[in-house]
Design goal:
Two copies of one chain form a homodimer. With about 210 residues, chain A is mostly helical. Chain A is built from nine helices and no strands. Chain A binds a DNA duplex (18 and 18 nucleotides) through helix 3.
DNA sequence: GTCTATATCTGGATAGAC
DNA sequence: GTCTATCCAGATATAGAC
């Protein structure tokens, strides 16, 4: 973001290196399973040196949690805003799902770390992450609300529950997703299809 | 429930007390966030005494993880098997969802602990839990496979992905479910409805 | 079956040299 | 900006008294 970072071709040092290493370790081993010594080693420095950049372990975690949510939020919004004006409602829904999953599964450790460790961090750290989370939730709620207002989503569907179902199902893909067996885009389309149309056979050709 | 437990009005002692206390703490604070001292205190004993009942912290965790899966498996199967013979396919699906959610949300800490800490435990502990997990996955796969074979579930639906979507969405309810705002049964019906029918408005009465 | 006491290790965090 | 050295709290686990 700043001018001084534009020419930095080796980001695995200093502040950024610590954050990258920490995010990767956190999503592998959980909050309690990662020591500052482990983070330091992964970043190629010694544990004591971390305190030049961060005041505490929780300061690192706080920054990682925020970056994780911002990443999905940005990517989901970008995917939706890139659509032409005459896009059908179900394609808007599909785009949001694709943006969320892409950020989660292929973009980086920050988003994954957030999903994995949010429930384990100390209350103060969790609270610090809440504003960013709520902002993303509001974005999704507004999007779903628009879709229901235009009649694309059935009246009977509770939007608050739908958002929770959606985020829950999408985030859970993290536990088993394997990029070797089809990319995040194909998965997103498949999931979106299930959410939109359901699984029930409506053609009446039962055996 | 069992004969030997009928006269036990104070279950929070000994082995069972340790397991109950540990399960409750694990689902609140995660694997790394719970010490043997904390477990001992919650169970009303001292840390050293735990080693009379268990060889290690991981031995406790292993037992809790297995019990958690067995609980959902049993409850889902019981809900399905309690149905009359002429039950419609969608009602079978609904019953399985209800059983899973009920065990997860209202039954106990073991199931919740499993969902929350499975990703954080040492590899050896995780591996020990795999057979029980696979058995439940097979049960669900067979159930869904039957439903698709009878024509109730559309041909195009990938059952392995559907199972993952389903379990992911259901388990995620743990993060926000509040029994004060409607029970697990109502939630289960709502979720099952979304899975079965989708969210799209099919009536064509768009504005 | 539970206690106390303790050995041993690892964690986060600090101080000061370079 | 990173190092070494260290403090101290808290962790698992053990040994032996009761």
């Amino acid at each position: 973001m700043s001018v001084t970072k534009t020419n930095a071709e080796k980001p695995e040092v200093g502040r950024a290196g610590i954050l990258n290493a920490a995010a990767s370790l956190f999503c592998q081993h959980g909050y309690g399973g990662v020591s500052l010594r482990a983070i330091a080693e992964a970043a190629g420095i010694k544990a004591g040196s971390i305190y030049y950049h961060f005041a505490s372990k929780d300061a690192i975690v706080t920054e990682i949690l925020d970056a994780g949510i911002l990443s999905v939020h940005d990517e989901a919004r970008a995917a939706v805003e890139a659509l032409p004006n005459d896009t059908t409602p179900d394609a808007i829904f599909r785009a949001a799902v694709r943006g969320h999953l892409h950020a989660l599964l292929e973009h980086g450790d920050y988003t994954s770390a957030n999903v994995r460790i949010f429930g384990q961090v100390p209350p103060a750290v969790r609270d610090a992450n809440l504003p960013v989370r709520k902002a993303y939730e509001k974005y999704l709620d507004d999007l779903l609300s628009d879709l229901q207002a235009t009649g694309a989503i059935r009246e009977g569907v509770s939007l608050s529950r739908l958002r929770l179902l959606l985020i829950g199902a999408l985030n859970a893909t993290l536990e088993w997703f394997d990029p070797e067996q089809g990319g995040a885009e194909a998965l997103a389309d498949d999931y979106a299809d299930t959410f939109l149309n359901g699984i029930l056979n409506k053609t009446g050709d039962n055996t």
